[in-house]
Amino acid sequence: MMEAAAASAGDCLVDLTSRDGEWFLDEMHFVSTLVSEFSSILPYQRNPTSPEADEIPSLRLALQCLYSANVIFRGLKELNFNFHTIILPEALKALQTEEPTVISVIETLDEIIQSIGCPITELLAQLELHLRYVIMDMESPHSHVQTIVYDLRTKYESLLLHSHDIHRDDFVGDEGLSPGKMLLMGFNGLFEKLQLEGAALVTALETMRLLLLGRRWIKLEKLSHCLHLYLVIAPELF
């Protein structure tokens, strides 16, 4: 139920809570952790070399997906915690003291965002629409957003690698990084870790999907996904 509510929450996701008043991320992390711990009592888990373990590879993959999802929920909680307790306070402190390298990084980031030519919320909405067409294996009228996102990502990665440091005498840290560069790399590091964890989950899900369905069933599965999407996009047709 919570997963369905989160999937349809849209911009209200940050305010979504369970019936008991728990924030959705805390609730989903708690549930996934609980299920992961319960799965450890399975006979297969207690003795991975048992003959039964070889007979149920799909269960092994399903548990791997479960653990990967739990890691992502934990990573999201850590990201939120570290941002509010480390990144945000340091950024505010630097802005209050008008630290030049931090201000330079923020101004450059703002220039990159402004180069999109439209509000970033509008870009996200177009990306979501484009994804729907891709899932349905249809030609997307929003395919141009891929070029915009690629250009945006290129500029951001260039800033990470080649950002110009101001007042080189003010370097701090063992690696000689300016406060602005350190803040940017710390912020980016939160998402890099989560991206790796997400890639592991996608790989596990794809492996399990191919194992359970076989290649000849993939088209049928795509058709099923399309029907579910149409229920969301155009429920009046059903």
Task: Describe this structure as you would to a colleague.
There is one protein chain. This protein is mainly α and 238 residues long. The protein is built from 10 helices and no strands. Helix 2 runs antiparallel to helix 5, helix 5 (57-96) packs antiparallel against helix 9 and helix 6 packs across helix 9. The longest helix has 40 residues, at 57-96.
Brief account:
This protein is an all-alpha fold and 238 residues long.
What labels describe this entry?
single chain, 238 residues, mainly alpha, 10 helices, globular
Secondary structure blueprint with pairings:
Layout: H1 2-7, H2 24-39, H3 43-46, H4 51-55, H5 57-96, H6 100-114, H7 120-135, H8 145-162, H9 179-213, H10 218-233
Helix pairs in contact: 2-5, 5-9, 6-8, 6-9
Shape: globular
Uncertain stretches of 5 or more adjacent residues: 165-171
Sheet bearing the most strands, described?
Answer: none
* Helix-strand category: mainly alpha
User: What's the end-to-end separation, in Å?
Assistant: 22 Å
